[in-house]
């Protein structure tokens, strides 16, 4: 079997952790049972570019049990859990091309290794496989039924491709499913980002000034969790409605140039480029900690930071100190990459349960309906979204009301008034 992982001797530990995660992935568990029985993906090849974590492992195992040939590479050079990669290869016979800390050349070699398998469906976390297919591997597009996309950042890229008329096949925006972005982005990113910052720094958040750059679903989750840890939270935003929402949620809102003067912690979650720049670093206090939890390492201008630093050193794992000419020190976490997956383990399995249920069911949907779809970005079908929510509630032992026939009639009528 063709694969490239760090060390197969890590496989047993990885298998234990995969099984641990699966204990709280009841929705995916029910889908896996159905897939194993009915083989809806039989004969199809799936190329997945995702964070190689215990939760992702359970997704690709589910896809394989559904009859697919699955090949996995990392969607970020620092997010791979090497023991999980080894376990997938050794214990589950799933080819993995991922090594934590791999350089850019190795990263793209691994992307191409997955595409070399001529997938019929791609699963992306940031749209790198899709981008590569459209730029350097166009000859493989004829094999593609469709793709799925996990992240806000990736969906932005794909909608741009659709708008410009270059998207060559349909894509299901898993990120836009309610059972993904309302829970994974908010509760998953909120908790795991705080976890990554704490593991990297071991600094006290209570009483600090914590600046959240961006108030989308990820920013809302992070701001809420930082507030829960006792921080004084400031939000920076470019969107007036989101800025207003942050104010109504009880947070201070101000421009980044003002927040830069008073923040102790900064974390970007915008999906955009150079949110924190050279002019902001020059305003920061001595000892400021800067992190990113957006998908790509572009939100913090790391090159600009290097340019104004007189010295730099790694002072702790995932913590690099940059000393500026004014004598102040800025501490950058995880090279400006996703701090929650670089310095910690990413989202808890119970929330990824819904996200990966969306992925698995979207793959099945593409097999069944891909030929009917246009070259556009689609939502996860509402009925799948609702089914996942119901399955999650059931797994939690929670019951909820259903509409009576009278209520259904009332809601569908325009003649019933006061």
Q: Examine the secondary-structure arrangement and name the CATH architecture of the largest domain.
A: 3-Layer(aba) Sandwich
> What low-confidence regions span 5 or more consecutive residues with pLDDT below 50?
none
Overall 3D shape: globular
Q: With helices defined by DSSP (H or I, 4 residues minimum), what is the helix count? A: 17
Helix and strand composition category? alpha/beta
Question: How would you describe the oligomerization state of the chains in this entry?
Answer: single chain
How many separate structural domains? 2
| Terminal Cα span | 69 Å
pLDDT averaged residue by residue: 96
Provide the CATH topology of the largest domain.
Rossmann fold
User: What does the largest sheet look like?
Assistant: 8 strands, mixed
**What is the CA-atom radius of gyration, in angstroms?**
22 Å
CATH superfamily of the largest domain: Adenosylhomocysteinase-like
Keywords: Cytoplasm, Hydrolase, NAD, One-carbon metabolism
Protein name: Adenosylhomocysteinase
Organism: Hippea maritima (strain ATCC 700847 / DSM 10411 / MH2)
Function: May play a key role in the regulation of the intracellular concentration of adenosylhomocysteine.
């Amino acid at each position: 079997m063709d694969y490239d992982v760090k060390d197969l001797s890590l496989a047993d530990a990885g298998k234990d952790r995969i099984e641990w995660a699966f204990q709280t992935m009841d929705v995916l568990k029910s889908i896996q049972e159905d897939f194993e029985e009915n083989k809806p993906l039989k004969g199809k090849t799936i190329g997945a570019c995702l964070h190689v974590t215990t939760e992702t492992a359970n997704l690709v195992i589910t896809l394989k049990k559904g009859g697919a040939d699955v090949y996995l590479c990392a969607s970020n050079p620092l997010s791979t859990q090497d023991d999980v990669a080894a376990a997938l290869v050794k214990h589950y016979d799933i080819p993995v091309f991922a090594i934590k800390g791999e350089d850019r050349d190795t990263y793209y070699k691994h992307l191409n290794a997955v595409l070399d398998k001529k997938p019929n469906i791609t699963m992306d976390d940031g749209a790198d496989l899709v981008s590569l297919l459209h730029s350097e591997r166009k000859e493989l597009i004829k094999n593609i039924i469709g793709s799925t996309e996990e992240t806000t950042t990736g969906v932005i890229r794909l909608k741009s491709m659709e708008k410009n008329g270059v998207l060559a096949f349909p894509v299901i925006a898993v990120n836009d499913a309610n059972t993904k972005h309302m829970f994974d982005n908010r509760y998953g990113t909120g908790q795991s980002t705080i976890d990554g910052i704490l593991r990297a720094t071991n600094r006290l958040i209570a009483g600090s000034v914590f600046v959240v750059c961006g108030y989308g679903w990820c920013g809302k989750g992070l701001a809420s969790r930082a507030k829960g840890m006792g921080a004084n939270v400031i939000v920076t935003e470019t969107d007036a409605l989101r800025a207003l929402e942050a104010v109504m949620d009880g947070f201070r809102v101000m421009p980044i140039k003002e927040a830069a003067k008073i923040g102790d912690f900064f974390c970007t979650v915008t999906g955009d480029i150079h949110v924190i720049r050279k002019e902001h670093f020059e305003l920061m206090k001595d000892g400021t900690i800067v992190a990113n939890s957006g998908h790509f390492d572009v939100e913090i201008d790391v090159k600009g930071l290097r340019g104004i630093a007189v010295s730099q050193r790694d002072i702790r794992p995932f913590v690099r100190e940059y000393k500026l000419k004014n004598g102040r020190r800025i501490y950058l976490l995880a090279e400006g990459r996703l701090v929650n997956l670089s310095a910690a383990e990413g989202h808890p399995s119970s929330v990824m349960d819904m996200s990966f249920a969306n992925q698995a069911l979207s793959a099945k949907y593409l097999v069944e309906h891909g030929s009917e779809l246009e070259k556009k970005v689609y939502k996860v079908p509402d009925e799948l979204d609702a089914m996942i929510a119901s399955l999650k509630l059931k797994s939690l032992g929670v019951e909820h009301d259903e509409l009576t026939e009278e209520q259904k009639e009332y809601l569908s009528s325009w003649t019933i008034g006061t």
